[in-house]
Write a structure and sequence with these properties.
The protein is built from 6 helices and 7 strands. The protein is of the alpha/beta class. The protein starts with a strand and ends in a 10-residue tail after the last strand.
Length: 181
Amino acid sequence: MTETALVVIDMINTYEHEDAHLLLPSVEAALPSLVRLLERARSHGVRVIYANDNFGEWRSHHGEILQTALEGPHAELVRPLAPDEKSEFVIKARHSIFYETPLHYLLTQQDVGHIVLCGQVTEQCVLYSALDAHIRHLKVTVPRDAVAHIHSDLADAALRMMAGNMGARIVDADDVRFDTP
């Protein structure tokens, strides 16, 4: 497997949850790097996959999730990152992008052996997804400035764990290589 995919985690969000007030400053700080990363991936023809929580709305689909977020109180954080017509979308219900989703099958079918993880939350969904990718023998890159956190100390520890325990490449978004590292 030689292809790379950019996976955008949980960025289609209304931010109407318990710890949103702790998350929002980090999302706002990461947004410019996320937008640049997304633009670079698209300009290089890299597959972009959104893996997003369904927020317990089991009858919803990705279009409804996006529309709800765009009509929500923080649409300015969603609009610049909205999926385009080529983007793929996987709905997840738990922390890992792989847990009971078709993502691994999708990646295998498309010969993806390297994923770039961006989005939120560094110390939760990004960390667990990196671990699950590592277990599946995928190479992982995490741009430290294109992931958002709730707790900065835990996010720093999570990035160290991804690098040290999972062999993830931790770089700045502008240094992401879209070939397999």
